Structures are given as C-alpha cells and as structure tokens.
Amino acid sequence: MDVFIGWSGAASLMMAKGLRQWLPRVIQASRPFLSSEDISKGRRWNPELTQRLAKANFAILCMTPENLTSNWIHFEAGAVSKNPGGSHVSALLLNVKASDLVDPLAQFQHTMPTKEEVRALVSESGNGT
Questions:
Q1: Could you read off the pLDDT of 87-102 as tens digits, one per residue?
Q2: HSE (CB half, 13 Å, CA atoms) of 55?
Q3: Cα–Cα distances in Å, from 20 out to 29, 31, 84, 106?
Q4: Segment 30-76, tens digit of pLDDT
C-alpha cells in the first residue's frame, strides 16, 4: 500500500520523518513516500511528486500551527482524495485542533497524536482501504 506523507515546515518535517521510519514496522506492506527522503538529488521533484500523489492509497498530512494554510498540503490532500479506488486522507495534528483546519482539508477525518487515535489511523491504513 502506497502511503503519501505530506509536510511543510521544520516541525512537520521532523514528524513526517519519524512517521516514515515507523510506519513500515507497524504495517509491513506499507510503502511510505516522503518527498525530502524519496526524491533523489538532482531529480525534478514535480513529476515525481505528481506520480506519487496519483498512486497513493492513503495520505497522512503532518499538520502544525506553522503550516495550517500551506497551499501545497491542501493541494496534496485534494490530489490523493480524488484517486479512484477509495483513497483516504487524514491530517496528523501536532499542537493543532481540528477546528483550526480550513477547507478543503477540514472536510476529512483527522488524527490527534494519541495512542488510541494513531492506532485507529494505522488500523484504517493497514486495511488497504
């Protein structure tokens, strides 16, 4: 299962890097993609990002107070959500409340950084739905 991990800003990137390392340990079939780590130096990032967004089954967007209005994160949410086959999008909220999110990102179910919520997120993404 292809999991797109979205980020914007230093705190969000740190969270995304940890998630990229941890996710395959919990869901062995997952193939997380993180642009900062998975696009080779010297490659054009736009075609690679577009391809990864098109094939992602699930997007986890690392949200912090600094990136609430990031155009890229909102673009990534829309790109993954329109994929055929029931792709899912969830924001992982760090020091952010769901009510802080704006549309279109506010339309999705989100994940707070608690053991129970992350377990539910991993369970949902591990189902391949």
A1: 899 999 999 999 999 9
A2: 11
A3: 13, 9, 24, 23
A4: 999 999 998 888 888 888 899 999 989 899 999 999 999 999 999 99
Q: What is the pTM (predicted TM-score) of this model?
A: 0.90
What stretches of 7-85 adopt beta strand conformation (E)?
A: 31-33, 58-63
SS3 126: helix
| SS3 category, 69 | coil
CB 81, CB 108: distance < 8 Å: yes
Within its chain, how far is the Cα of 83 from the centroid? 14
Give the Cα separation of 30 and 115 in Å (integer): 20
